[in-house]
Amino acid sequence: MENVKEVLTKKSKRAKMEQRGKIISFMCIALIVLVVISIFYFVASRGLATFFVDKVNVFDFLFGTVWNPSAVGPDGQPLVGALPMILGSFVVTFLSAIVATPFAIGAAVFMVEISPKNGEKVLQPVIELLVGIPSVVYGFIGLSVVVPAVRSVFGGTGFGILAGTFVLFIMILPTVTTMTVDALRSVPRHYREASLALGATRWQTIYKIVLRAAVPGILTAVVFGMARAFGEALAIQMVIGNAALLPSSLVTPASTLTSILTMGIGNTIMGTVQNNVLWSLALILLLMSLLFNVVIRLIGKKGALK
């Protein structure tokens, strides 16, 4: 009787393997969470040192227009106005998203609704190729082609928001297009069939039914592309001009958070004001990345409710 009870209560080999799998999965998830928390803590501790250790005013940092961490203003505070970089990052991100969205939607509609076979044979490999091109290559192309073109057409030096917009437009186009294709393919087939059965034309079905049903997915793609553009560093640094000034036009040299970070982080000493303010810029980038992720999740939940 005891042997039977022992056999019945003893865990099987599959149960033991499942338990081990759960433990390994939990450890991997815990490691990922720990790494993310560590990154947030490290960046926040360095970035907040600007305000708690160096006593820099938060409003002067966020809304100041003069960036010269090595100099001191009349009030004894370092000149660390980050508004030019913040504004430059937002402007170039929004402009690139505005330019890329129509092209991405058009390419996605062609691949899914107009000519799926040709789209899969021609456009899909091209998009995959664009995704695999390194950022430095985009930067060199922008420096060799886009900047001279902007200079000859619009005047100025060629470096600025406009050149950065064109480069980021090409860089985020594959991401937005791929996610838009997935959003269109997720629209149920009976939506199209019902629209055509009611007498709608092909274009009416695409415009009024398919695209409207895929709006949450398309918005997610656009926000994801904006997050990609906001965090781009090397390519945008090579074409924007890296002048820490408020952009007066689209063709004057400007700067972004990432361009100033990549230029200055290796030329400062850890713990100094010059280094701490760069970590503060990195903290702003991290918070914006978090904001983009929150927006994507909210859009996804709204689409799921529908």
From TrEMBL:
Cellular compartments annotated: Cell membrane
Topology class, membrane: Multi-pass membrane protein
SUPFAM superfamilies: MetI-like (SSF161098)
GO cellular component: plasma membrane
Molecular function terms, GO-annotated: phosphate transmembrane transporter activity
Domain of life of the native organism: Bacteria
Residue span, ABC transmembrane type-1 domain: 86-296
Protein's GO biological process: phosphate ion transport
PANTHER family documented for this protein: ABC TRANSPORTER PERMEASE PROTEIN YQGH-RELATED (PTHR30425:SF2), PHOSPHATE TRANSPORT SYSTEM PERMEASE PROTEIN PST (PTHR30425)
Family listed: Belongs to the binding-protein-dependent transport system permease family. CysTW subfamily.
Protein name as catalogued: Phosphate transport system permease protein
Source organism (scientific name): Candidatus Enterococcus testudinis
